[in-house]
Structure formats: structure tokens, C-alpha cells
DNA sequence: TTAGGGTTAG
């Protein structure tokens, strides 16, 4: 049998080995195919397809006649092999040799720029696109949209998008996903509605974008309607799509639905498990998250970095150092220590009280990314070491461009340490030098800093200067400052603003009620309490937990149910007598109810943090350091008491409350009594 | 023949 020349080309497409390709290549040469002007492009593609880029490129280099399709075959080969630098190089060479690129060339070249985040080169290519008359090509168009989107230039993407004469689903999707990924979920949804109005039908990729948008803007209804739409249209639901669904429900706090979708899945992978673990961890269900980590191993999955990081987050949340350490050990033995994992460990050690361990992990990271820096700065912040946070920030800004999160961490650190002057300065630098538009969070930190230092007038002026409508967090910060410094008139203004928001958080309501009580405006305090009852809210019970021999023990206020209750109260009573001899006077101001003095003193004595401390003292060896975690703020009297206890029992006691750390040692606290 | 996507740290 003899192959005819025209039969060689289709045969090439089926080749699975480069030896066979080179034989066909030789045959083509012998048959004189190329002397008749046939292109070498199919041969180049065939070599590339079997992974032999070297032969493909060599063939291209030796070819005397290089037409566009040959250039494209090579450039596409490098693109598929994920060599974006080579793609751009070949594109440059092509333009230099005066060959006119076509739709494929531009598309692939723009994609390479997107991967390289090279906006400048991308825009240069776009100029060439216009010059060559390809600006209305949907492939080229969606590629440039994606370039702008991935470089965070949604405004520029919008300009191109609006000018497009024809838009297909991919163009719409690129814009929608672009908005989602730059945190603009609202705009993404609006654009999808417009897409629907213009008669376009969304596919699975659009739905994925909308799922992320739903999690982004906490719109559970949107999430479930996307889910419904996918079922009605019978869009394919593979493991990855279902995993995204689990993730979406989990991020929206719908853990029951997330779990149901998870259980119904025919197949799961490590990512699916990680998504659910992180969902539980981020919604405060640390125990469930850690259980899932164990469960996944029981059914044969090996935890990867993502699942371990999520589990670490759960450990940080409840302050279980022993588990955190064991995950650290597991990770060190089984996975590669990357930036993500290291950052997770930094966070865990810092939140379990060991800032020095966090620091040594940080020091060992060879190339630190933005998030590493942001995390360590935030960690020093919650430990009340504002100066150290500032020092790190100074080092950071010489190496990497700080972002909005960096400044949020820095301002919060300065605020926790009461560094008012520095706070004013860096807020100013952020706005004027780094051109970062202050967000609600930045304002809240700065208002908090000023108000806590007693500068409530200035704090109020800062709020007035805001371009956007001040949110709840800002007013709450002002109110707590006024509460602390007994500035009742501005405080009352702030309290009324807070109430306008109908806060969902019980703690916020409690703050308002407590403020009115402190201002001795009992009728308003009572009416806020009544409002809380009417809206079905009750005060979140304060609890404290302490880790003893690797087990967490949690205590509510006046926890009489505990088997060691008698011993605990006995110890607290002895300690109180010693403290009184040392000059301790109960600060009954911190009991914010209208009660008799002796009842107030009694109420202070049974605060959950004291029970947890006493339990820890009773059940650990002398000298052992204690870590207490509290779900609310630690009260001023307990703070004073803990200082005394640290002297009497000669122990280090670390109390982590909802905001920050208090490290008690020899009668002093790391926060310098400023909190 | 080329374009859009899916877990994790702040």
C-alpha cells in the first residue's frame, strides 16, 4: 500500500509519537509537498501536540517560507505548554519581521500578557490590534477584557466592553467574573441582569461567577436561585461545580445546606473536603472543622495545604495550641511548607498566644508575599505591640507595595497600642502618598484610635469628613470611646446613630444599653433592653475557655454545674483576700446594671474568666503558663484582678479576648492597661 | 484556531 500526499495531513493529526511524525515529515519532503507551497503548520502542531516543542521550533526556524499559520502554530504551541515569556518573544519577532498577526496571534499574545500581568505590553498589543483592524473580533476582544480584568483595571475593561459591536457569552462572562474577582459582586450581578435583558443565556461558567458573587455579597437568595437554575437547565454538575456549590453555601453561613450538598455528591475530592472544612472554621464551628479533617483521613483522603490551613484557622479560633502544634507537625512531615501554610501557622501561633513562635516561622520564610507581611503586622497588633508592627511595616514598604489590608492592620495595631500621633500620620500617608481611598475599616480603626484616647471631638470630625455614608462600625467605635471616657453628649449622638442600623449583633445592642446605663439614663437603657427582647435577641452569654492537658474547658459566668466548682470558688476567695491585703479595690463601675454595691461585687467575682483561671491554676503544675480565650471583651475589673493573680501565683497568664491579647506577668499587662 | 472558571492565608 502506498500513501498519497493528500492522505498524509489527516494522518498527522492522529500521531501519538514524534518518531512517527518525523517519518511522515520525511515522506512529505520526499513527495515534494512543501515545494508546492504547502504549509509546515500542521507538522509544527503535531510535534507540539506530542510535547516535542524542540522539533517543532527547529522545523519552524529552518523553514524558508514562514506564513502566518506557521507563526501561529509555534506561538500556540508555546501557549499550550504554558511558556508565556516565549509567546511574547515570538510575537515580537513576528512583528519585527513584518508579518501581520491575525486573530489567533493576538488572542494568544494577549493571554500571555495576562498570565505575566504585563499590562504595558498588553496595551501595546491592543494598539496593534486596532491598527490591523481586529478590534471587533470577539476572541481578541474577550482576551483584552480578560487582560484588564486580571490586572484589576475593570474601568478600562468597561470602556472596551461598551464599545464592542458584538458580544458573545465569553465577553459577558469575562466582565462578570472580572467584577467578582475584584470584589465587586454587586456590579457582577447587575451586569448579569443586563445580559439577560439582552437575550443572552448564561452557561455553567457564568453560574460559577454568580456563585462567587453570592458568597461575596452574602446574598444567599442569589446563591440558591443559581443552584435552582442549574438544576432546571440541567447544566452539567461535575465534582468541581458541586464543590463550588458547597463552598458558596458554606461561605454564606448555610452550613446545613452545604453539608447536604456535600453528602449527596457521588464523588468528592480533597478540594471538596477543604471547602467544607473552611466553611465550618470560618463560621466559628471549629470543632466540626477539626472533626472533618479527621473524617477525611478515615475515608482515605490525604489533607493538602488548603485543608490544613483551614483546620489551623479553626485552632486559632478556639485557641487550642496542642491541636495547632500537631497540625504543624503533620504538615512538616507530609506537605511542602509554602507561603500559604507558613502564614496559616503564623496566625495560629500568634492567636494561641505564642507571638515568638509566630515570629520565628515568619523569619524563616525566604520570599514573603503581601499576605505574609499583612499577617505578621496584624499579629503584633492584636498582641498590643504597635511599635513592632510599625517597625515591620517600615521594612515592608521598602520591599513590597502595601495595600489596603496592610494599612487596616497597621492602623488597628497603632490603635491597640494607643499610638495616636503615629495613627494620624500613617492614615495621612495612606491617603496622600499611596492614594488608597480609606474604607469603612480604615475609618473605623482611626475613629477607634482617636476616641479611645479621649479625642472624641476629632473622631467625630473624621466621621463628618467621610465621603460615603458612615457605617455601623464607625459609630460603634465612636460610641465605645465615649463610653470609656464618659463623654455623654457625643456618645448619645453616636448611640442614636447605632440604633438606626438595627444592629444584628447582640453585642452592639449591649454596648448601647451599657452606655445609657453608664450615663445613668436608665429609661433609655431599659428601652433598648426591651427592644432587644422584642426583636428576639438575648445577650450572648460570655464564656471563657482554658486549655489544660490538651483539652479545652469552657466556663460560663457563675458556672455552678462544674464538678470542681467548690474548689474553684475556694481558690478565688483565698486569692481575693490576698489581693485585698495588697490594695485591690473592686471596680464596680464595670457592672452595668442598677444594683446594690455588694451585689455588684459578688457579680464581678463570678466572671467566667476568673473561673477559667482558677481551674487552670488548680489543674496544671506550678509555673505553667495559662492561655484563656474569651468570646467577649475582658472587663476592667477582671483585668486588674489578673494582674494581682500573676504576682501571687507567680505565673504568666495570657487572656485573649475578642479583640486582642493581654499578657500578664509579674503584676503588669502587655497592654499597659490601655485597651 | 485562538478567548471566560472551580478550595486555602488578610
What is the fold's blueprint, element by element?
Layout: H1 5-13, H2 18-30, H3 41-49, H4 53-62, H5 68-80, H6 84-96, H7 103-116, H8 119-131, H9 138-150, H10 154-163, H11 169-181, H12 185-197, H13 204-216, H14 220-232, H15 239-251, H16 255-264, H17 270-282, H18 286-298, H19 305-318, H20 321-334, H21 339-351, H22 355-364, H23 370-382, H24 386-399, H25 404-417, H26 420-432, H27 440-452, H28 456-464, H29 472-484, H30 488-500, H31 506-518, H32 522-534, E1 543-548, E2 551-556, H33 565-581, H34 597-605, H35 608-619, E3 626-630, H36 636-648, E4 653-656, E5 661-665, E6 668-669
Parallel strand pairs: 3-4
Antiparallel strand pairs: 1-2, 1-3, 4-5, 5-6
The protein binds one DNA strand of 10 nucleotides through α5, α7, α9, α11 and α13.
Protein name: DYW domain-containing protein
PPR repeats: 67-101, 137-167, 168-202, 269-303, 369-399
InterPro entries: DYW_dom, E_motif, PPR_At4g14850-like_plant, PPR_rpt, TPR-like_helical_dom_sf
Shape: elongated
Which sheet architecture does the biggest sheet show?
6 strands, mixed
Q: Please give the order of strands in the largest beta sheet.
A: 2-1-3-4-5-6
Rg, Å, rounded:
32 Å
Total DSSP helices: 36
Q: What percent of the residues sit in helical stretches (DSSP H or I)? A: 55-70%
Low-confidence parts lasting 5 or more residues at pLDDT below 50?
none
Strand content: under 5%
Task: Report the oligomer.
Answer: single chain
Please tally the β strands and state the result: 6
Give the integer mean of the pLDDT values: 87
Distance between the termini: 90 Å
Structural class: mainly alpha
Keywords: Repeat
Protein name: DYW domain-containing protein
Family: Belongs to the PPR family. PCMP-H subfamily.
GO molecular function, one term: zinc ion binding
